[in-house]
From TrEMBL:
Lineage: Bacteria, Pseudomonadati, Pseudomonadota, Alphaproteobacteria, Hyphomicrobiales
ABC transporter domain segment(s): 3-238
PANTHER family, sorted: ABC TRANSPORTER ATP-BINDING PROTEIN, HEMIN IMPORT ATP-BINDING PROTEIN HMUV
GO MF entries: ATP binding; ATP hydrolysis activity
Protein name: Iron complex transport system ATP-binding protein
Annotated organism of origin: Cohaesibacter gelatinilyticus
Keywords: ATP-binding, Nucleotide-binding, Transport
Pfam families in UniProt: ABC_tran
InterPro entries, per the entry: AAA+_ATPase, ABC_transporter-like_ATP-bd, ABC_transporter-like_CS, P-loop_NTPase
Similarity comment: Belongs to the ABC transporter superfamily.
Amino acid sequence: MSLQISSLNAGYGRQQILHDVSIDDMKSGEMVGVIGPNAAGKSTFFKSLTGIVRPRSGYVSLDDQDILSMRRKQRARQVAYMPQSIGCNAALTVFESVLLALKQTTGWRVGADHLNKVSNILSMLGLCHLADRGIGALSGGQSQMVAVAQVLVRKPKLLLLDEPTSALDLHHQLSILSAIRDAAKEFDIIVMAALHDLNLAAKFCDRLVLIREGRVLADGEPREILGLEALNETYRIRASIEKSSLGTYYVDAQLP
């Protein structure tokens, strides 16, 4: 399975945000980090793929199907989206909230197989101890993990995560991204995650796409992208890529 994005254009009213965005040959099992400064167009890009924002032109092929031409319910089975803000005060338990997310794409009759799917996802993410807890009583990190469970339980072909680690401590950042990367491999899905932390992007992503002002500036392996002069220009920094004592690469950055 692969994802191809060709000449995607989108915006709001008269304002165009995305300009001929093209990304080739994203493979199942791959985690792609979408990086770029604030207001680069990352959220609009994800919303265009889900149908929240209707693209003005372009073509998006997922497993040889044009997802832009799909009806909303059909696309929801193929593409799952986790936005930046997930706040929810509904009187549901964690188990119920994940089950509800599953049923939105399968119809409302609940069978044993549906209950097993929810249990398996909670187990995979280490959330079984929270199954009966109300979602309004969770910490920020726990809420983010439950949100990940809600999108993963549907086993989409394409998973879009808009800043999944925002406002989380380092432990929860590592936990969430580790779980997402493992799920991409286990479920054989394509994951695209908008990330601000370049070091987390370098650590967890197989590939990075650098976006500025709604245009793709670079696309490739993390070590390659993080070493480009375009990165310095985009973020208005001076940066170099270094190798840590753990054998991973990280960005050492400062203001120019």
